[in-house]
Design brief:
- The structure is a single chain.
- The chain has 200 residues and is of the alpha+beta class.
- The chain has 3 domains: 9-68; 69-122; 126-186, Roll (Nucleotide Exchange Factor Grpe, Chain A, domain 2), CATH 2.30.22.10.
- It contains 5 helices and 6 strands; from the N terminus they run H-H-H-H-H-E-E-E-E-E-E.
- The longest helix is centred in the first third of the chain and has 57 residues, at 11-67.
- The radius of gyration is 39 Å and the shape is elongated.
- It starts with a helix and ends in a 21-residue tail after the last strand.
């Protein structure tokens, strides 16, 4: 071996430190870019969660405002019921010729109307019941009435008016449900088949 051979290193060994030096910054850059991407993702998720919490709190605050009077309104329904009963109990013969009775009835009617207007302003509305298909979400069945003239499963009589406040039930309507009449529906006959005009 000559002197040159001793000092000569293979080409791949001479290039390796430079290759490692070049690869390390690239690897570090990729690593940092991945870390930045992960942090951006975390930030976006945190911002989205914050926005969701803000929306939930807004909805809760709105609902608290809408339904804050529910307890008071429920108590006032009894007052509305009593005013209606008072008006329903008076006959025309009872007030005929009696100026005082007419004035009292007029005062009760004005009070009942004002209470109904106040309910309406605060989103409190009566539940439609008479003649409607029985809905257990809005009606409370107290009894069944045999009435072949009314479709079975419909409300035949309302014993107590139900009310909603905005979109929530405040009190169900107490009703009697018709039975024995034709089934309400979509034109189906008893066999479940749609009625078809066969005369053509």
């Amino acid at each position: 071996m000559n002197q040159d051979d001793e000092h000569t290193t293979p080409l791949h060994e001479a290039l390796e430190p430079e290759a490692h030096a070049e690869l390390e910054p690239v690897d570090r850059t990729v690593e940092l870019e991945a870390e930045v991407a992960a942090l951006k993702d975390q930030l976006l998720r945190a911002m989205a969660e914050t926005e969701n919490v803000r929306r939930r709190l807004e909805i809760q605050a709105e609902e608290r405002g809408k339904y804050a009077v529910s307890g008071f309104a429920r108590d006032m329904l009894g007052v509305a019921d009593n005013l209606r009963r008072a008006l329903d109990s008076v006959t025309a013969e009872a007030v005929e010729g009696n100026e005082v009775a007419r004035n009292v009835i007029a005062g009760v009617e004005i009070t009942a109307r004002e209470l109904a207007n106040t309910f309406e302003r605060h989103g409190i509305r009566p539940v439609a019941a008479l003649g409607e298909k029985f809905d257990p979400n809005l009606h409370q069945a107290m009894m069944e009435l045999e009435d072949p003239s009314k479709p079975a499963g419909t409300v035949a009589m309302v014993m107590q008016t139900g009310y909603t406040i905005h979109d929530r039930l405040l009190r169900p309507a107490m009703v009697a449900v018709a039975k024995g009449g034709p089934r309400p529906g979509n034109g189906d006959d008893a066999g479940g088949q749609p009625k078809v005009d066969t005369t053509a």
